[in-house]
Specification:
- This protein is mainly alpha-helical.
- The protein contains 18 helices and 2 strands.
- It has a two-stranded antiparallel ribbon.
- A hairpin with a 2-residue loop joins strand 1 (147-162) and strand 2.
- Helix 3 (69-101) crosses helix 10 (249-283) and helix 10 (249-283) packs across helix 14.
- It is globular and about 75 Å long.
- The termini are far apart.
- Keywords: Membrane, Symport, Transmembrane, Transmembrane helix, Transport.
- It is found in: Membrane.
- It comes from Cardiocondyla obscurior.
- It is a multi-pass membrane protein.
């Protein structure tokens, strides 16, 4: 009863937020009034982000410590296989939709002025790959909690001597800079290794493992008590404030409406057809029942536009509603929130070809394959924060040689598409956890037996040692 009421309140919050947002636009509110309306939603985002780091650390370490290395490796392989397949399928669906509908019209580019002047930035795929690897191995764990490394190109003045004339030129040189934002990838890698080793130490590491297990339970209780029941009101304020703050909403929708329809239709196909079919084919279970259990997290993702901020609710929906083993959710969902971005891959594939169509550029088969592969790679590098796809979009455009300043055309509508694609990302993580759990039931059962046998063996060894000491002391006394 409680979960049904909470779901109804969350959906009601979304609908009320939409209604209040459009009514607020008619009232012509001041920026300060809009800020006050959005403030409860800002508090929700701050609370959710507050739990991200302790939740990832405690859930991953506790989950990995309770699995032996060989069996956790199998679960990881199944999860990564699922991530790769669904992300590539999402990019293919996006490419098919944008080629069929063809939303790109060169007149849009001349009609819609660039809302935000986008700076030409030199970005390469190699730089992005190296940055991902660098962030996987942070040089400072404390710094990784609030910063991540990124390659940036800065202008450097160079004096060129040509005969008797000195000329000054500016060249772009790569340099490593730290930008604000939790290095989730680095924390995940460290916590996985730490958890596996903590589980292998045996009785000496039990105290450490118990600490993270209890920490995870406390955080989940905090999420349930504090965040979950506040989220419907916070989501309503987030959506209402965002709609009120958009300028020239009607003109933007008119000019980019077909592009929005293409993206949304592709995301719906992936969410309603692709993911449920994969889930049903592997588990032979009703995907509608599974989705109903995930709906609270899905609606929250629509409101927050952040898969990382939705993590606490995703864990709760999977473990309490869909009865997924916490050892699976703690690994699959925590990693999936960073690397499994189906909606982002689809969005970036559509946006790249849309920009090519705007510039009157026809893409051949090789270019389309490049789009699908680069969009898949870029989605892995996208941070699980709002509007991160606009940053990684530069990779896809650069790979095709398209002008990166055309991204500014998409800024005006990204607030809405970002929420929809984030909800698809969260849904993909949920289905992935269900599939991996179904395939790993035997593995988890064997792991339980293995841990029980190992604990029994250690107890027997301790008992034999104790009996041996008692016998020796007895003989010495005699």
């Amino acid at each position: 009863m409680g979960s049904n009421m909470l779901l109804a309140l969350t959906i009601g919050g979304v609908l009320l937020g939409l209604g209040l947002g459009f009514l607020g636009r008619l009232a012509d509110l001041t920026p300060q009034s809009i800020t006050l309306i959005s403030f409860p939603g800002e508090l929700l985002m701050r609370m959710l982000k507050m739990f991200i780091l302790p939740l990832i650390i405690s859930s991953l370490i506790a989950g990995m410590a309770q699995l032996d290395v060989r069996r956790s490796g199998r679960i990881g392989f199944r999860a990564l296989t699922y991530y790769s397949i669904t992300t590539i399928l999402a990019a293919i669906v996006g490419i098919a939709m944008v080629l069929m509908i063809h939303p790109g019209n060169p007149q849009i580019k001349s009609t819609v002025a660039a809302v935000v002047k986008a700076e030409e930035t030199k970005v390469s795929t190699i730089d992005a790959i190296l940055d991902i690897i660098r962030n996987m191995l942070p040089e400072n764990l404390v710094q990784a909690c609030f910063q991540q490394v990124q390659t940036s190109y800065v202008k450097k003045k160079v004096v060129v001597i040509s005969g008797s004339v000195n000329q000054t030129e500016f060249v772009l040189e790569p340099t490593l800079v730290y930008k604000d934002g939790t290095n989730v990838m680095g924390m995940i890698v460290f916590c996985i290794i730490f958890g596996v080793l903590a589980g292998q130490i045996g009785p000496r590491g039990k105290l450490m493992v118990d600490f993270f297990v209890v920490l995870n339970e406390i955080i989940m209780k905090l999420v349930t008590i504090v965040v979950v029941w506040y989220s419907p009101f916070g989501i309503m304020c987030l959506i209402a404030g965002k709609i009120m703050s958009i300028t020239n909403l009607a003109a933007t929708a008119q000019m980019l409406g077909l592009y929005m329809v293409t993206v949304v239709l592709g995301l719906m196909i992936h969410a309603i057809i692709t993911l449920p079919l994969i889930y049903w084919f592997i588990t032979r279970k009703n995907p509608a029942v599974f989705f109903r259990g995930m709906m609270q997290a899905w609606v929250t993702a629509l409101g927050t536009a952040s898969s990382a901020a939705t993590l606490p609710l995703t864990f709760r929906c999977l473990e309490e509603n869909n009865k997924i083993d916490p050892r699976v959710t703690r690994f699959v969902v925590a990693v999936g929130a960073t690397v499994n971005m189906d909606g982002t891959a689809l969005y970036e594939a559509v946006a790249a070809i849309f920009i090519a169509q705007l510039n009157g550029i026809s893409l051949g088969f090789v270019e389309v394959i490049t789009v699908s592969l680069t969009a898949t790679l870029a989605s892995v590098g996208a941070a699980s924060i709002p509007s991160a796809a606009l940053v990684t979009m530069l990779l896809v455009l650069t790979a095709l040689g398209l002008p990166t300043n055309d991204i500014s055309l998409l800024f005006a509508i990204d607030w809405m598409l970002d929420r929809i694609r984030t909800s698809i990302n969260v849904l993909g993580d949920g289905y992935g956890a269900g599939i991996v759990y179904h395939l790993s039931k035997t593995t988890l059962a064997n792991s339980d037996n293995y841990l029980s046998a190992r604990m029994y063996s250690k107890q027997q060894t301790c008992m034999y040692k104790y009996m041996y000491m008692v016998r020796n002391n007895f003989h010495r006394t005699v």
